[in-house]
Each structure stands twice: as C-alpha cells, then as structure tokens.
Amino acid sequence: MSQRQVLQVFEQYQRARTQFVQQVAELAARPQNVETLRNAGVISLLRPLLLDVAPNIQHTAALALGRLANYNDDLAEAVVKGDILPQLVCSLSEQNRFYKKAAAFVLRAVGKHSPQLAQAIVQCGALEMLVICLEDFDPGVKEAASWALGYIARHNEELSQAVVDAGAVPLLVLCIQEPEIALKRIAASTLSDISKHSPELAQTVVDAGAIAHLAQMILNPDAKLKCQVLSALSQIAKHSVDLAELVVEAEIFPVVLTCLKDSDDCVKKNGATLITEIAKHTPELSQLIVNAGGVAAVIDCIGSCRGTVRLPGIMMLGYVAVHSENLSMAVIVSKGIPPLCACLIEEHEDHIKAAAAWALGQIGRHTPEHARAVAVANVLPTLLAMYMDTHSSGDLQMKTKKALKNILQKCTYLPALEPLLHDAPPNIMKHIIGQFSKVLPHDSKARRLFVTTGGLKKVQEIKAEPGSLLQEYINTINNCYPEEIVRYYSPGYSEMLLERVENYHPVL
After folding, report:
1. How far apart are CA 320 and CA 312, in angstroms?
2. Angle at 166 between CA 163 and CA 171, to 5 degrees
3. Half-sphere exposure of 271 (CA within 13 A, CB side)
4. How far apart are CA 397 and CA 378, in angstroms?
5. CB of 340 within 8 A of CB of 314?
6. Distance of alpha carbon 68 from alpha carbon 109, whole angstroms
C-alpha cells in the first residue's frame, strides 16, 4: 500500500469527523432535534473532539455543546457530568479565537440555568481563563468572555464576588471604552449584573471608574447599548445615598431625561428606573430631579406608553411625593394625578394598578389641599371598587386600602367623599364618617348640603358598635342637627309617622 493510500485513510477520517461535528452543530440549533441527539449519546461523542488535532473540529464541537447546553438545565447538567468543563478550560488559553468564542459560549450556556451550574464553572477554574480572554486582541473573544461572566454573576452575591475576585471589573471597564458597540453592550450588561447584588459589589464597579464612562454613553444612538448603560447606572444608584450621589455627580441630568422620549421602550423604562432609584433616597435628590424638570418628563413618559414601561415612572412619582409636602405639590402642579388615574383604569395588570394606587396615596397623604387634589380627580370610587373587587390580587387590595386611608384621613372636600357613603365597607366607612364629623360642625353650608344629598339619611342607616370610634363620629354628626331632623331621617321614622296618622283621632 502506497504512502498516499495510507494518508488517504486519515484524510477520510478527518473529513468524517468534520462532517459529523458540523452536522451535529446544525442539528443542535433546532430545538426539535435536541432530545434525539441526547438519546443518541451525542455529548460523550463530542467530548473527545474538543481535543481533536484539527482546530476547526475543536471549535465546532464546542459550538455544538454550547447549543445543547443552552437548551435546558438537564443538558447543561449532562455537560458538567460529562467532565467537559475542565477540558474546555485547559485548552481555552492556548487555542485560536474561534475556539475561545465557542468555549466561552459553552460556559455561558451552562452557567445561565442555575446558581449550582454557575458554581460548577467557578469550581473548574473557568473564571481566571475568562478574565484572560477579556484581554484578548479579538473583540469577539472579549465579548464572549464578558457574556459568560455576566451569566455567572447575575445569579447571586457569592458568584458575583467570585467574578470580582478573579479581576474582571477593571477589564470590563476597559471593554466599555472599546469602539465595538456589541462589546460595549455586553460589558455594560455584565457590570450591571455584578453591581445589582450589594453596595459593596457596586462600590467595586465604581472604584474601577465605571460611572464616568457609562454616563458618557447615555446619549449613544444605539438603543440596546443605552438600555444596558442605564441599567448599570440604576443598579449602582439603588443601594445607597452615597452611590446615588456619585451617579448624579457624573452629570447625568438633564441628559438622562431625553431617554424618556426615546422611541425604544426599553430605553424609556430603564431611564425612568434610573431616575426612580435616585429619587427614592432623599428629599434633596428628589428636589434635584424636580429642578431638572424630571417630574414633568416622567409624567409625559407615563402618558405616552402602556404596560410595564409605565411602572418605574409611576413609582418615581410616588417616591418624590412621599418625601415632603412641597415635593408632593410639585407632582400635583406638574399635572401628575391624571396620568396616574389613567393607569388605574387603563392597565390590566394588577401590579401596575397597585403601584398607581400607592403613588396616589403618597401624593394625597400630606394635607387637606393634597388630598383634595387627588379626590377631585374622581379617583376615590375607582380605588374603592378595586379594593372591594374579589378578582383583585391581595397586593392590589392592600395598596388600594392603604391609599384610600391615606387620602381619606386628610380629605375635607366633602363632595368627593359623599359617593363613597353608599358603597364603602365598615373599615373604610370609619374614615369617611370621621372626615364628615370634622367638617360639618364648622360649616353650615356643608351641613345643609349633607341633608339635601341624602348623606344624613345614609349615616342613620349605618349600624355601628356601641362605644366604637364609628359610633362616636356618627354622634358628632348627629349633634350638628336638630333632634327632629335626625329622627326624621332615621330608618323606620316614616312608618312610625304613618302609624301615628292611622291612630290619630281627629278633633271634630
């Protein structure tokens, strides 16, 4: 047999291996094939091909494994149990860029499913190799490594700390300064995933100089990058006053307000979330946002979108209003109440309605003037209906009840309270009657109106426990009127009068 014929055998074997991994990689890209591939023992067949002499076979085998592991946690577990991760990690630093990208994809696909699988990646020493890949000359390798690190860090504080300890943060900050948009996006996303768990982790990102570079990218025309940048800044700002102030000092106002008018819903939502995370901390930070025109911008944003995009804006108005009378009044003056009322009526999700109810409660809780501003928007009957609706979630019922209580305890605008007299349950009625008992003794016009609109009659129909607070309020109201008027509107009085007519013997 000639040398040529001998070599041909090896060439055929290499072609067959190449064809096998390519076809498996293509088949693994379609979910309907995955179970069949697994049952055929594909993982154990791909494992030795990771160490193949041909580089293209190595990286295609890694790609196929990544696609399988990406499919579900069972397959990711099978990759871990197949002892594939140590092999990947061993050859990660030595191979070409295609293999590095495919190997990082496998690590990401395994790590994304659960903290336990992500921990398996940490234990096999992959973090150090991924961090080395962050220094690679090829942007695609940096991107793949950053993505894998983000999927590990997002699970919990411990895993995020492991990514930090491996030295990833300074290199990620360098990655967001690279010219490639895709790399900037993934690096910003990973910084966000690291920052979200604790003030200490966020501080690590801040100490690496991330804030200034992230803040500069708020105006980048790429919507996906803006989303990630705003998310990272939010995750830093949410933890403490100090961190929020550092974000503000990077001069994000008024630049960030332009994000609220963006055509991309994710940019709008993340922009509003960032403002919310800053506003919640202190009256001073909220005042700074008000002064920058932030409240008006958020109100416009709530009016221009629907669904969960509205949620952070709704929360922001509530957080601003909760701090002080003046800040709450700033929300009222900026016409913040109508869009919140619209959210209560228009939205289908209970958690969005609950947020709107909470925000309205925070606006109306300060003084009679604040409560009146909310009450005249005719929102009280809507809140009451939601509280009494058996289909409302427990959270929505709790939030509407609290909002009603907050507003009613300050509301002295009786025309807004009167419609509630006919429907409110006893625990809400107590607050309504309490407000009438405060106003009626000092307002003769209101006393007259209370009789003509049927309010006094309704009060006489309420059955209160003797000695209860509600009974005290009713007694106070009744003491505002002559005894015969109260008697006249008491239940059964008309029958008693008719009976007296029947029993009356006229004097002839």
Report:
1. 12
2. 85
3. 31
4. 18
5. yes
6. 8
C-beta separation of 189 from 231 below 8 A? yes
Give DSSP secondary structure letters for 428-442. Answer: HHHHHHHHHHHHGGG
Q: Residue by residue, what is the 3-state secondary structure of 383-398?
A: HHHHHHCCCCCHHHHH
Q: Are 46 and 24 in contact (CB under 8 A)?
A: yes
**Helices of type H across 154-209:** 157-165, 168-175, 181-195, 199-207
In which residue are the tokens 């009146």 written?
A: 372
Radius of gyration of the chain (CA): 33
Six-digit token string for 365: 């809780």
Q: Could you tell me the pTM of the whole model?
A: 0.85
> Nearest-CA neighbor of 392 among 339, 349, 427?
349
Per-residue pLDDT in tens (0 to 9) along the chain, 508 residues: 677 888 888 888 888 888 988 888 888 888 888 888 888 888 888 888 887 778 888 888 888 888 888 887 788 888 788 777 887 787 666 677 888 888 888 888 888 888 998 998 898 888 888 898 898 889 999 999 999 999 999 999 999 999 999 999 999 999 999 999 999 999 999 999 999 999 999 999 999 999 999 999 998 999 999 999 999 999 999 999 999 999 999 999 889 999 999 889 999 999 999 999 999 999 999 999 999 999 999 999 998 888 889 999 999 999 999 999 999 999 999 999 999 999 988 888 999 999 999 999 999 999 989 999 998 888 888 898 898 888 888 899 999 989 988 998 888 888 888 888 777 787 888 888 888 888 888 888 888 888 777 777 787 777 777 878 888 888 888 888 888 777 777 776 666 656 666 666 666 6
Structure tokens at 4: 């040529």
| Phi/psi of residue 379, nearest 5 degrees | -90, -20
Q: DSSP string spanning 109-147? A: HHHTS-HHHHHHHHHTTHHHHHHHHTT-S-HHHHHHHHH
With residue 248 as reference, give the H or E element that holds it: helix 241-249
Amino acid at 301: C
Q: How far apart are CA 327 and CA 357, in angstroms?
A: 18
Residues contacting residue 224 through CB under 8 Å, at least 6 positions apart: 185, 266
| Coil, helix or strand at residue 253 | coil
C-alpha–C-alpha distance, residues 198 and 223, integer Å: 27
Residue type at position 181: I
Instruction: Render the burial of 270-303: b for 16+ CB within 10 Å, e for the rest.
Output: bbbbbbbbbbbbeeebbbbbbebebbbbbbbbbe
